[in-house]
Amino acid sequence: MLSNITTTAATTAAAAAPSENVVFHLLAEYVPEGVPGWILPIVTASISVGIVIALISVMAMGFTWLERKVSGHIQCRYGPMYAGGWHGWAQPIADGVKLLMKEDLIPIGADKALFMMAPAIVLGAIFGAFVAMPLAPDFYFADVNLGIFFILGMSSLTTIGVVMAGWSSNSKWSLYGAMREAAQVVAYEIPLGISLLVPLIVAGTFNLREASELQGDFYGMGWFVFKNPFMLPASILFFIAALAETKRAPFDLPEAESELVAGFLTEYSGIRWSFFFMEEYAAMYLMCLVASVFFFGGFESPFTYMAREQFGPNAFITNVVAASTLIVKSIAGIVLMMWVRWTLPRVRIDQVMTIGYKYLTPLALICVLGAACWEAIF
Amino acid sequence: MSNSSTKSSTFFPEPRILPGGEKEFMMDVATSDLEISMGPQHPATHGVMKILIRADGEMVTAAQPHLGFLHRCAEKIGENVEWLQYLPYTDRYDYLASMNNNLGYSMAVEKLLGCEIPRRAQMLRTICVELNRIASALVAFGTYGLDLGAFTPFLYAFREREWLLQIFEKICGARLTYSYLRIGGVFNDAPPGWLTEVGHFCDVFEVKAQEYYDLLMVNKVFVMRTANVGVITPAQALDFGLTGPMLRGSGIDFDLRKDMPYMLYGEAWDAGAFEIPVGRGEMGTLGDCWDRIYVRVKEMTESLGIVRWCLANIEEGPVLADVGKTIKVPPGEAYVGIENPRGELGHYLVSDGGKGSSRCRVRGPSFCNLAILEDIMPGTLLADAVAIIGSTDVVIGETDR
Amino acid sequence: MDFQGIYDRLKEQGAAGMQEANLPRLPDPADKKDKGRGGDPYVLVDPAQICAFMDLAKKDERLHFEILADLSASDPAVDAENFWVIYQLLSVKHRHRLMVKCSIPKSDPRIDTISGINRAAGWHERECSEMFGITFNGHPDPRNILLPDDWVGFPLRKDYEFPKEYQGISCI
To answer: Which residues in chain B have Cβ-Cβ distances shorter than 8 Å to C148?
Structure first.
């Protein structure tokens, strides 16, 4: 059976070059004769990037609405109820319009170029990370072999944007926020990466699509988290580290509105501010997607299994079911993050560091060791 | 280039010998303290107060509160208006506990007058004051959670406070600035059914108070943030003249309601209607932020006991003593300190027999409680500074008056 | 202890600078103009010896006034020559209060600070000095506390004239 999986993985990997995604195949069917060969990848890339940006922006807007609803219901109120009619579904659109209309302020003492570049870097990095994220066996933008490395690298880049924002704002609060962000991300990248090593040991691949497909046995329930006793603690460690990485409460120290006014966001307004906001939700979504892929079966579930049995592995409907499965899983993760945010107070910076260096990192190392031994023995 | 920067420009300077004989190698990086001005507009200062903080990285090395942004000349106004006219101004010092302020002023004038207050009026006063104390403690508790980054308790606390404000609205028509307790008694009798509703509130709130305690006070992260932070020793507390929960948080069992009883509190205490919660250093050191907020949360339940005792013992009767339309106060001077939610609210009134006071001094508890910040903030982290300010439960209307 | 007890104890201990006790009294029926005196009793203390007095009041075992509840001043109508500085003492241990009053001349309003004895006095004295123009000798931090640093005049004096403008901002 193991050999069976490896062969399928090998064949799919051989079949698809990194840029040959579903858009490429669709275009390839309709491309007229005589068009030079280099045009097709460029057009594919442009369209894919457009889809990523549109999809993630809409998703992030949806999550802001979800956040308000979740927080509202936790706090015994309703959250937005008016805009758009049904449970205020249009509230994020109204917010977006408002933010677009707002004056774009740049403080006098600010480093103008860095100040304007920071939101772009933050948002660009997080969108870039999504490129390596497969949604279904055939729905991917780029089939990157070292996908998880790429994603972690790109999502770390957002820190540079945040530090830039904090430095260039010429505000002490912003500077504090940026320094905290830098310290926190350095501390939590380690347990984040190490806890991800555990599923990587089990999967034996860095490619997210392949890792996801590996979990399709046992009627779609062969998730990594069930395959190794060290996976569950590793997933919890990953979740905690991801909270810190995405600046979510109780680790929202870079923003910390009651201490640092708004941290690195203090001097931002209007659309630039909303870029940071969008980044936060996109990063949450990204982390939850990674967690779903590497711990909780990716796009594999009994539904995906049934669809594959019914319609064949490469049918459109199978891919849709697979993509929905992954999205539902990651939204569950996001709701969990929101729940934590609206429940816990914020920890202090020294406690953040203690948790990161003293507890999470050694525990993650123990998990890696245990998982490796387990894999070697069984 | 100044001298100081050219003087030391080597990357590997001589190691500094520490007192223990250890060598400390330091890279020659010039660091300087950062001076940050927390406020006047800052979410943690609970109003318009400025705290100038000198910080070495995240560490606070010095702090200096700056007040006066909300100064409204209450004391000067007190000299220029008549006795009764000043009553609405008292609402505005500690706008979260207006009933208590009304009581303090009224009692000071009544002391000068030497008049007797009808028993039903005293009962109604006690009920209102204690309910207002609960409302004030709810704000303190909720905003303290907010200071530490926990949003949800704030909303829960305000839900209950809303009910209290509605109760106040029913008896006097106002939600925040009541002017209900006045010289000689209270403004009017309770409307029909009001006392029943208060009883109902007591029953519901007793459960809620315990719920809040479980929700926030024993939360692990909350304890991590508040225990051993901002410790005020009992000696320090007395030296700085702290009163109210700040004093009791440091383990000193002193409450004016119990120890120097005024109005009906002596009777209520003898009947066992309430106890005085005192900080015991349960989660960390005696007198830390946790103890102070613990005292406030526990006080809510004790206030319920007093309200219940009043509801059980209230009887029919007049609610306003006959003090005349224009109050004529004999010359003299009086100081009356009462237990406000934030400490001792003192009114020192001087009368020269005229229409109004010739000196109207207000001793705001927050004003005195704030003075200790300069002492306890150095050496804490920036986030602790916020926790400490929150634990003093300052109301700027009262510090600045 | 009641006021009489405190007063006797102070006398017994030879409290420095204590001049007299003033008690409230009922109006004299014979004198139509006399309205009596209401409120609280107080002791009058010589301002030059206030520090010694406060020290005794704080440290004496039977008095034990460890809290300085309030410190303020007054520009009394009945005494045109002097300011009153009023101290409110509170004992947590014995649960009693005492009002102490010092009378200082308006022409040269100065008095020693007691912030060395009771640190609570620090802020009260700052407020008092900016409002009345009383100088507290030896105060460690004699800045304004509620008023701006460049405020002219002492607002709580009876002869204070309200300014027409402050830094170009009309106050009327």
So the answer is: 68
pLDDT digits (tens, 9 = 90+) for B386-400: 889 888 888 888 888
Chain C residues with CB-CB distance to B348 below 8 A = 70, 72, 86, 88
The residue segments making up the domain with residue A209 are 101-377
Give pTM, 2 decimals: 0.84
Express each pLDDT in A327-348 by its tens digit: 899 899 999 999 998 888 888 8
pLDDT at residue B9, rounded to an integer: 41
* Best mutation target, B221, B283, B289, B391, to test chain A (most A CBs within 10 A): B221
- Decide if B386 and A258 are in contact by the 8 Å CB cutoff: yes
Domains contained in chain C, number: 1
Q: CB C156 to CB B349 under 8 A?
A: no
pLDDT over threshold 70, residue C168: yes
Report the CATH number at residue C161.
3.30.460.80
CATH of domain B74-400: 1.10.645.10
Contact C87, C70 (CB under 8 A): yes
Asked whether the predicted pLDDT for residue A4 surpasses 50, the reply is: no
Please name the member of A176, A259, A345 whose beta carbon is closest to the beta carbon of B44: A259
By CB neighbour count within 10 A (0-12 exposed, 13-18 middle, 19+ buried), where does B153 fall?
buried
Q: Is C123 on the interface with B (CB under 8 A)?
A: yes
Interface test with B, best of A258, A346, A349 (most B CBs within 10 A): A258
CA distance linking residue B84 with residue B356, whole number of Å: 8
Nearest residue, CB atoms, B224 vs list A176, A261, A347 = A347
* CB-CB neighbors (< 8 A) of B377 in chain A: none
**Hey, is the C-beta of B379 within 8 angstroms of any chain A C-beta?**
no
Tell me the per-residue pLDDT of A35-61, one tens digit each, with 9 for 90 and over. 777 777 787 778 888 888 888 888 888
The tally of domains found in chain A comes to 1
| B243/C131 CB distance under 8 A | no
Is ipTM strictly over 0.90? Answer: no
Residue window 335-374, chain A: list those with CB within 8 Å of chain B: 342-351
Compute the distance between CA of residue B273 and CA of residue A285 in angstroms, rounded to an integer: 54
pLDDT tens for C23-46 read 777 777 776 666 777 778 888 888
Q: Angle at CA A187, nearest 5°, toward A186 and A189?
A: 65
Q: What is the CA radius of gyration of chain C?
A: 18
Q: How many residue contacts between B and C have a Cβ separation below 8 Å?
A: 128
Which chains does B contact via 3+ CB–CB distances below 8 A?
A, C
Classify residue A213: in a domain, yes or no: yes
**Which of residues 303 through 332 in chain B touch C, CB cutoff 8 A?**
329-332
Tell me what the mean pLDDT of segment C78-104 comes to. Answer: 87
- At residue C32, the pLDDT reads 66
CA-based end-to-end distance of chain B = 48
Q: Is residue A47 part of a domain?
A: no
> What is the band of A13 on the pLDDT scale with cuts at 50, 70, 90?
very low
Which chains are within 8 Å of A by 3+ CB pairs?
Answer: B
Range of the domain at C157: 3-170
Give one word for A263, left, alpha or beta, with left for phi > 0 and alpha for psi -120 to 50. Answer: left
Q: What pLDDT does residue A34 have?
A: 73
CA distance A336 to A295: 15
Of C35, C66, C76, the CB nearest to B350: C76
* Range name among A49-63, A138-152, B173-187, B250-264 with the lowest pLDDT average: A138-152
Q: Does residue A176 sit at the B interface (CB-CB below 8 Å)?
A: yes
Confidence band of A16 (pLDDT split at 50, 70, 90): very low
Residue of B nearest to A252 (CA): B149
